[in-house]
Request: fold
Amino acid sequence: MIDVIDLKKYFPVVSGIRSLFSRSRGKVVKAVDSVSFQIETGQVLGLVGESGCGKSTTGRVLLDLEQPTSGDILINGESGRALKKKNRKTYYRRIQMIFQDPYGSINPQHNVASILSRPLMYQGIRDKTIIRDKMLETLDRVGLSPPEAFLEKYPHLLSGGQRQRLCIGRAIILEPEFLVADEPISMLDVSIKSGIIILLKRLVREQNLSLLYITHDLATVGHLCDKIAIMYMGRIVEIGPTDDVLDRPGHPYTRALISSIPIPDPSITRSGAPISGAISDPVNLPSGCRFHPRCPYAENLCRQREPVSAAVKDNPEHGAACFLTDKLPGFDLTKGHRC
Ligand SMILES: Nc1ncnc2c1ncn2[C@@H]1O[C@H](COP(=O)(O)OP(=O)(O)OP(=O)(O)O)[C@@H](O)[C@H]1O
Ligand SMILES: [Mg+2]
Reply:
């Protein structure tokens, strides 16, 4: 079980010597602002939102690639902060990341054996037979078979899909408990995207791990995710089981995202207005609800106070941070949101 508690990451707008003279001194971008969620073992949470809303920063902070401003993660009950202090290597074994770019995230000068053996050696495993067996087993798991044929290959000989499978293999070879996948299919050909989604789904169940699947594409989450969290300007504005969020969205932003998913059938038109306007300036956040400048339903209260998450349709598993959830007009769902 992964439990992320009140995670914050604020970036100073200017840093170093310039900050002494700049008018933006002291100003921050609240990239991640009080984000909390849980992922059960063997389950997938989809983190969805527009560009710049803080999805990758959330992942990077969890992976320790950025220092959090505050907050913690509990990995099966153990504090990430405490684990890092005690033994960083153990922390890195338990949490792994898959990046968006399978070309940029592996060293083209290393062959598959070298790429896969590195994490094992970093963790102190030196026995060549154990390393070879583990590499072969992992290659097989990620669908690169026969595995023996891949060990000596260099990344330029692999297709985009095979490279991403290799990156997934590198991430799971240490049998982590928590995997963060940041837009893992967005740079791949349409024809191979679904193969990677199916692979991730299988690995989550087989290896009993928790997966945070980061994407801006709501259309893919229905296939993979048990739960969805919708993020807007550093905050989670809606979270719940996938079907509840997609079928009964309680936040106008979620409705707008669903309305903007294209339906591959020209005879079907969607109800609900797709999102309009641009995201607000992240340095000078709007008062009240951060979404109110773009919200077609905003009232005075929304401009004055920031809503907290409340149950949608009395379902304690499904929450939305909106004052108007119960007052929103019916959401006529047309088909196609899981295409
Ligand atoms: N190292 C950094 N220094 C300053 N600001 C940063 C830094 N990294 C991210 N940000 C800012 O934090 C905010 C969130 O960025 P982030 O990359 O997490 O968004 P994202 O949701 O992953 O977007 P995308 O879908 O484009 O990948 C943005 O306003 C971004 O400019
Ligand atoms: Mg990102």
Q: What stands out?
A: The chain has a mean pLDDT of 91. DSSP finds eleven helices and twelve strands in the chain. Residues 2-15+25-108+175-327 form a domain with the Rossmann fold fold (CATH 3.40.50.300).
